[in-house]
Design brief:
The chain is of the alpha+beta class. The protein is 35% helix and 31% strand. It has four helices and ten strands; from the N terminus they run αββββαββαβαβββ. Strands 1, 2, 3, 4, 5, 6 and 7 form a seven-stranded antiparallel sheet that branches. The longest helix is centred in the middle third of the chain and has 26 residues.
Length: 192
């Protein structure tokens, strides 16, 4: 794995050790990326990205959860997310370039202890779990748990014609992420 700075590498290794202390021998590393997780909580999970800090010093620790993918963007959805954000002390909902809804909280390395990390990891995963069903019910899309289950099931299910059913699959480009197969072709939509 390549790191942009020594601080980024040191913080990644420190957090990796904390995760091992907390979760045992479970391998939470992602190949070739400074990402740890996911850690599941009911129908959601949270992961950690360790990025280099500004100016090449320190590190930024981003704790995030994919909440829903495929929800129809609308004024009502944006209002729902803004109201949910107004009531959150930790993390904020946002929509990425693929219209996936995420819950994310970012910390500077000087704010981070093991207890703070584990607490925020839990709060972010619980926050995603508290909202994912309501978002899907009101605005469509699929929860994280449903997306992962579909990707796992897709490895064994094929249509009669031999083409996989529409769903999230391992990215054929060899990257450690999922890519949406629409039943006929790969789309530009990805999820990590």
């Amino acid at each position: 794995m390549q790191f942009d700075t020594e601080d980024q590498r040191e913080w990644y290794e420190r957090i990796k050790a904390w995760m091992a202390d907390e979760y045992g021998d479970v391998d939470l590393t992602q190949p070739d990326e400074p990402v740890l997780g996911p850690i599941g909580h009911d129908s959601a999970s949270a992961s950690i990205i360790v990025a280099p800090g500004g100016g090449g010093e320190g590190a930024l620790i981003s704790i995030f959860s994919w909440v829903v993918t495929g929800a129809e963007p609308s004024k009502e959805l944006f209002e729902y997310l803004l109201r949910a954000n107004a009531n959150r002390a930790v993390g904020a909902f946002h929509i990425d370039e693929n219209n996936d809804i995420l819950l994310r909280h970012v910390l500077l390395d000087d704010q981070l202890t093991k207890d703070v990390l584990m607490g925020i990891l839990t709060v972010v995963a619980k926050g995603a779990d508290e909202h994912d069903d309501e978002i899907v019910k009101r605005f469509g899309g699929r929860r994280y748990e449903d997306r992962v289950a579909a990707a796992r099931a897709s490895e064994s299910s094929q249509t009669v014609a031999g083409s996989p059913e529409a769903g999230w699959y391992k990215d054929p480009q060899g990257v450690s992420r999922l890519r949406w197969w629409d039943g006929n072709r790969w789309t530009e939509h990805t999820a990590e």
